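FW: tagging you since you asked about this chain on Friday. Here's the raw sequence from the shared folder, copied in full. Didn't touch anything.
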Amino acid sequence: MQRWRGLEDIPQDWGRSVVTIGSYDGVHRGHQLIIGRAVAKARELGVPSVVVTFDPHPSEVVRPGSHPPILAPYDRRAELMAGLGVDALLILPFTAEFSQLSPSDFIVKVLVDKLHARAVIEGPNFRFGHRAAGNVDFLRELGATYDYEVEVVDLFERGTAGGGVPFSSTLARRLVAEGDMEGAAEVLGRPHRVEGVVVRGAQRGRELGYPTANVETPPHTAVPADGVYAGWLTANGERMPAAISVGTNLQFDATERTVEAYAIDRIGLDLYGLHVTVDFLAYVRGMARFESLDGLLEAIADDVKRARSLTQEYDAQHARH
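HL: got it, structure written out here
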């Protein structure tokens, strides 16, 4: 998959293409429907598919300080999009100047002059241009002038008939923030992932016999609610079942919120300085202060036992599918 940053990165000889535009944070199941349809349409027409997204999130420029929690950093989004068959990813720097583009100017500068859109695939709520004044009806209206067609993909609903809501990044963020990892996975189509570099912490886990990887996450990362979780720690390409702690360490009066993962049954791991990923499968329990060290150790042993069981069960179920 080609990756471009800014309109100037697009090859001069770029021909017609099928385009879809959006923030696409998380590349959740709704996004997968739209992007999958764009890829299929491109193959039908014999042209490349292009995803257009923005950096930073438009809300941070329009309303500074309102940057939403990030479900997936750009490299992860690119990886997921490539897995869906996308041919090119265009990341547009979203600046104050860019935010002033009218919907018609956006269409001409991006879709017509640079990407030579043959078709544009979007969800029903797509908005674009200054003050988000453009919508799919306007996009379709100008398509008659600039020779591209517009296709709208309805987003599937989550939950039971009549009681579901459309898949959305907002919904996924809320579920992550609540610690509902099963619900988040239903929206995302996979367990929620947090990533970062392993840094030195207080090393209390090592002293207790449960050495953890203290993961320093990038700004705005969508970190789950405080608590203990079952999941996986992946380092150097190796995926290891893990018991994961999120929050401040109440037992030792810590004040800094951390993400720490204990790789179950692994001895002598040295992960300092490595970029790792942490996938959250299920909430195990809330954070707590114990009356004694023995009480804490007993709880940790139970956490590890439950995390081991949950991850084994998950892997066994998915091996059968």
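FW: The chain is about 35% helix and 25% strand.
HL: agreed, and The first helix runs from residue 29 to 45.
FW: great, closing this out.
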